[in-house]
Amino acid sequence: MGTVTLDNLRKEFDNGQIVAVDDVSLDVANGEFITVVGPSGCGKSTTLRMLAGLESPTSGRITIDDEDVTDVHARRRDVAMVFQNYALYPHKTVRQNMAFGLRMSTDLSKEERNERVRETAEMMGIEDLLDDKPNELSGGQKQRVALGRAIVREPDVFLFDEPLSNLDAKLRTTMRTEIQRLQNDLATTSIYVTHDQEEAMTMGDRIVILKDGELQQVGKPKDVYENP
Ligand code: ADP
Ligand code: ADP
């Protein structure tokens, strides 16, 4: 399951002088792929960071499967985030990077964890990289590892923060297709932030357009495209 609800979500900085997210309400269905698009500074990252529990809202509510996870200390938050800069642990191998989150978030035995890491690495085509450190990998390989690290946990919700913007155009297209394929196979609810309108249009079941922290439009790509 992975139903996500944002209810009048608001985030202010600097004692209210900056309103990064301005009373955003949104329902995301289980298994849906939502893209969030808008120019730099419109509140995309702040929204994701609140969903990930990295930042507390000023007001409003976040629920996942009817459980209130608004507070950063909310106990259950079965989400995995994929970052633009990959955020891999530099001193750990690919295997350790992938297994680490698994150790924190599940009660699997060591053998089961190893098996899950191996299966996921195969799915992502990174099984030959398991003993490498991040600095031995190309950008595309790092992003595959970052995706693998999220997938291996089998979370209810994936959060993507501009995961492809550090890759060259060709690789970006390949990875787009790959993420869509994974999304189809895994049917995990996904919230995907990008400043690239074409990416948002091609990848999302629905698109959310943010402007100055406000939700400006929500709809299927075709409807948003035809009624800008
Ligand atoms: P985006 O991800 O769309 O580029 P952000 O969510 O990063 O937008 O930022 C939204 C607004 O909030 C911007 O004006 C940004 O400068 C501001 N902001 C984000 N984080 C902070 C912070 N920690 N302190 C002050 N202002 C912030
Ligand atoms: P993005 O463009 O992906 O939103 P940024 O580089 O804007 O990322 O933000 C990275 C970090 O800096 C975040 O933790 C964000 O909260 C913080 N940040 C962004 N804008 C400001 C700001 N004006 N003042 C303080 N911190 C900020």
UniProtKB/TrEMBL annotation:
<keyword id="KW-0813">Transport</keyword>
<dbReference type="GO" id="GO:0008643">
    <property type="term" value="P:carbohydrate transport"/>
</dbReference>
<comment type="function">
    <text>Part of the ABC transporter complex XacGHIJK involved in the uptake of xylose and arabinose. Responsible for energy coupling to the transport system.</text>
</comment>
<keyword id="KW-0067">ATP-binding</keyword>
<dbReference type="GO" id="GO:0055052">
    <property type="term" value="C:ATP-binding cassette (ABC) transporter complex, substrate-binding subunit-containing"/>
</dbReference>
<protein>
    <recommendedName>
        <fullName>ABC-type D-xylose/L-arabinose transporter</fullName>
        <ecNumber>7.5.2.13</ecNumber>
    </recommendedName>
</protein>
<keyword id="KW-1278">Translocase</keyword>
<keyword id="KW-0762">Sugar transport</keyword>
<feature type="domain" description="ABC transporter">
    <location>
        <begin position="4"/>
        <end position="228"/>
    </location>
</feature>
<comment type="subunit">
    <text>The complex is composed of two ATP-binding proteins (XacJ and XacK), two transmembrane proteins (XacH and XacI) and a solute-binding protein (XacG).</text>
</comment>
<dbReference type="GO" id="GO:0016887">
    <property type="term" value="F:ATP hydrolysis activity"/>
</dbReference>
<dbReference type="GO" id="GO:0005524">
    <property type="term" value="F:ATP binding"/>
</dbReference>
<keyword id="KW-1003">Cell membrane</keyword>
<keyword id="KW-0547">Nucleotide-binding</keyword>
<keyword id="KW-0472">Membrane</keyword>
<comment type="similarity">
    <text>Belongs to the ABC transporter superfamily. Carbohydrate uptake transporter-1 (CUT1) (TC 3.A.1.1) family.</text>
</comment>
<dbReference type="GO" id="GO:0140359">
    <property type="term" value="F:ABC-type transporter activity"/>
</dbReference>
